[in-house]
Amino acid sequence: MSQDTEQQLSVIEHITELRRRIMYIVAVLIAGLIGGFFLAEPLFQYVISRPPADTYTFKSFSPWDGVGIYMKFAFLVALSLTLPFIMYQLWAFVSPGLRKHEQRATLKYIPFVFVLFIAGMCFAYYIVAPMAFQFTANVNQQLGLQELYGITHYLTFLFNLVLPMALLFELPLVIMFLTAIRILNPLRLRKMRRFAYFGLVLIGVSISPPDFISDFLITIPLILLYEFSVLLSSFIYRNQLARDKAWEEEFEAGHPHSAT
Fold first, then answer.
1. Neighbouring residues of 58: CB distance < 8 A, sequence distance ≥ 6
2. What is the pTM of this model?
3. What is the C-alpha separation between 151 and 168, in angstroms, rounded?
4. Cα–Cα separations (whole angstroms), residue 73 to 7, 79, 178, 200
5. Highest mean predicted confidence (pLDDT) among 59-73, 99-113, 223-237
C-alpha cells in the first residue's frame, strides 16, 4: 500500500470518527431538548415573576408564542447540558494524539464547562439584563411611550443577552484546553491581544445598552476574563516546557550516544 493511499485512508477514518461524534452530540442535544420541555414552564414562571418582568403585562401576538417560549427555554437547558458532552467528544477525538498526562489534564476541564456556562448566565441575567431594561425603560419614558410588550419580544431580548455572555464565560476553559493540546500558547495570545480586545469590546458594546457606563461595566469583565485566560495558559505552558525538558533529559540519559 502506497503512502498516499495510507494518508487517504487516515483522512477517511478521521472524517468517519468526526461524523460519529457529531451524531452523538446531536443525539444528546435532542435528548436535552426533550428534558428541557419539562423545565421550560417553571423557568418561565421564575423569569416573569422577577423584576422588571413582574411589572409588565405581556401579550401574545401569535398562536406560536407559547410554543416559542417552550423552545427557547428547552434549548437553553439542552445547550447547558450538552456543552460538557461536546467538550468530552472533542477531547475523545484529539486524545489519541496527546500524551498520557495531557489526556488526564484536559479531561479534568470538562466538568467546569457546565459551571462556567451557568456562571455566565447568572452574570448576564442578574447584572447585565437589569441595566439593559432600565436603560430602555428610561428612553421609553422620555419619549412618552407606553411599555406594552409581546412575551416573545421580551424573551428574545433577554436571551440575546444571556446566551452570548454564557458562551463567553467559557473562554478561559477553551483557552486552557487549546493550550493543553498545544494549539495555543501565551505567546500567541499576547500577540493576539489587540485583536482580542477589539473583538471583546465589539461584543460588549453589542450586547449592552448603548451608554458608556453599561459598555464599561460589560467590557471590562470580558477583558479581565481574557487576561485571566492568558494567565492560565502561561501556567499550563510553563508546565509543558518543564515536562518536555525532563523528558529530553531522561531520553538523553537512556541514550548517551544519541546526541553524538
1. 48, 149, 150, 151, 154
2. 0.77
3. 26
4. 45, 10, 30, 26
5. 223-237
